[in-house]
């Protein structure tokens, strides 16, 4: 029998945030089996595709070969805690090592591997004495800096896997700037099929599905698009020695009010694709802005969908703009579309009226082009706050009249709000020109 092939997908297929384009899925195993593609005795790759003539590309919903899937019981821990790591389908011995992502100097060239600075000793775990799964391992967290951490698991036969968690500070507000990682969106993009019905347990596979926040991630445990959308910003923070508190969506959910958030932080940075927020989080962040709190959105299509949470399960309930709360009223811009797998990324063009504080020492001037962006983009609407200024544009990126806009505005109460307007801006923070522009924005909005 022929060896099994590795079934992959273009990374842009699931980047858009508009569930109406994603219908239910059905299995397409029969074709692979009939063709003899999948060898007897190997792990089957279960796939989905869209129903109808305009079927999308196959999407893997179970693990790649030699995966060692695991997930932490919580998405956020504090220093001094014991993190519970659940290994979901491996009974043999393995080694676990925790490391901090961002300060490393090793380049990451794969979407299924992540590097970092090791923290604490490696833990060697013996084979399970029984067949019971999942196995639980308690890992001690030291007095480490707030940030994003991964456990790397490795076992015989080249098996490996990763599991992320956010390390919040021992006490919120230790730094005056908070960086929120898009942990809800990471799980919404997770197509792992826990119940074994061949359909990914996410509304991207079937609009009626909910999202279980406790699942191990596919692709050896790395959240989808992490390298392209998130990693560059984490490395920029480390290289520029920014002192920030890292928060998960759960940590933000736990704050009582916008006033509570304002007492803790001068600036809240949404570092990635913060598409899914609860009513409570929307209320807290909007109130924080109204009280003069500063905000930065380094991706696109933020605060797009309202979600309800019950226990560890999220359910999508509707678009905020359809519920009378258009996101541009808070962010300055809102989503106008995605690339539909046909529009290429394009550079931003610095706006003719771009202020000197934004362009200073960057080497660019009004009309200069920088970077390559797209995937999903934002633009102003009639609900954008008065005085919202365009800093840069990607003209007609998705066709005539569909232009991406990077913006800034200031409220009468003094709140300063920056929005990147393109999905992958934060991930390019380590590019020299973008690094300088981001420094300029940071200087502008990081203090009251």
- The CATH H-level superfamily of the largest domain is Class I glutamine amidotransferase (GATase) domain
Beginning-to-end CA distance, first to last residue: 66 Å
User: What is the C-alpha radius of gyration, as a whole number of Å?
Assistant: 22 Å
Strand order within the widest beta sheet: 14-12-15-17-26-25-24-21-22
Q: Helicity, in percent?
A: 10-25%
| Average of per-residue pLDDT values | 88
Query: Which structural class best describes the helix and strand composition?
Result: alpha+beta
For this structure, the CATH topology of the largest domain is: Rossmann fold
Low-confidence stretches: 1-58
As for the number of domains, it is 2
Our count of helices gives 9
Give the total of beta strands: 26
Strand percentage lies at 25-35%
User: Major beta sheet, specifics?
Assistant: 9 strands, mixed
CATH top level class name of the largest domain: Alpha Beta
CATH architecture grouping of the largest domain: 3-Layer(aba) Sandwich
**Any idea what the shape is?**
globular
């Amino acid at each position: 029998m022929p060896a099994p092939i590795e079934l992959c997908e273009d990374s842009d297929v699931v980047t858009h945030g508009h569930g109406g384009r994603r219908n239910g899925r059905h299995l397409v195993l029969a074709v692979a089996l009939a063709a003899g593609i999948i060898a007897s005795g190997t792990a089957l790759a279960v796939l989905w595709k869209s129903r109808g003539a305009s079927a999308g590309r196959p999407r893997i919903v179970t693990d790649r070969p030699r995966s060692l899937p695991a997930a932490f019981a919580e998405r956020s821990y504090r220093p001094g805690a014991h993190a519970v790591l659940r290994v979901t389908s491996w009974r043999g011995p393995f080694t676990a090592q925790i490391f901090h992502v961002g300060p490393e100097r090793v380049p990451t060239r794969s979407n299924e591997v992540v590097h970092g600075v090791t923290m604490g000793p490696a833990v060697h775990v013996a084979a399970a004495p029984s067949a019971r799964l999942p196995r639980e391992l308690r890992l001690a967290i030291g007095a480490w800096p707030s940030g994003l951490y991964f456990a790397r698991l490795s076992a015989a036969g080249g098996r490996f896997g990763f599991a992320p968690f956010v390390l919040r500070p021992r006490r919120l507000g230790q730094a005056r700037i908070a960086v929120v990682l898009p942990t809800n969106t990471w799980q919404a993009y997770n197509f792992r099929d826990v119940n074994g019905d061949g359909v990914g347990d996410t509304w991207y596979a079937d609009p009626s599905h909910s999202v279980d926040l406790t699942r191990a991630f596919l692709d050896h445990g790395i959240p989808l698009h992490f390298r392209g959308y998130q990693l560059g910003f984490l490395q920029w923070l480390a290289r520029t020695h920014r002192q920030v508190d890292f928060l998960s969506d759960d940590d933000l959910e736990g704050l009582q009010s916008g006033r509570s958030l304002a007492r803790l932080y001068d600036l809240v940075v949404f570092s990635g694709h913060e598409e899914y927020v609860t009513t409570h989080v929307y209320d807290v962040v909007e109130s924080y802005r109204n009280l003069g709190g500063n905000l930065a959105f380094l991706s696109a299509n933020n605060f797009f969908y309202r979600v309800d949470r019950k226990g560890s399960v999220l359910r999508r309930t509707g678009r905020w703009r359809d519920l009378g709360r258009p996101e541009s009223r808070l962010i300055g811009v809102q989503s106008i579309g995605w690339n539909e797998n046909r529009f290429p990324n394009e550079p931003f063009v610095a706006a003719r009226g771009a202020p000197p504080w934004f362009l200073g020492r960057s080497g660019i001037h009004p009309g200069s082009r920088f970077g390559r962006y797209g995937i999903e983009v934002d633009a102003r609407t009639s609900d954008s706050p008065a005085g919202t200024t365009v800093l840069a544009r990607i003209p007609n990126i998705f066709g005539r009249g569909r232009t991406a806009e990077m913006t800034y505005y200031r409220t009468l109460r003094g709140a300063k709000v920056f929005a990147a307007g393109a999905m992958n801006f934060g991930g390019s923070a380590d590019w020299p020109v973008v690094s300088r522009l981001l420094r300029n924005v940071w200087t502008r909005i990081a203090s009251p």
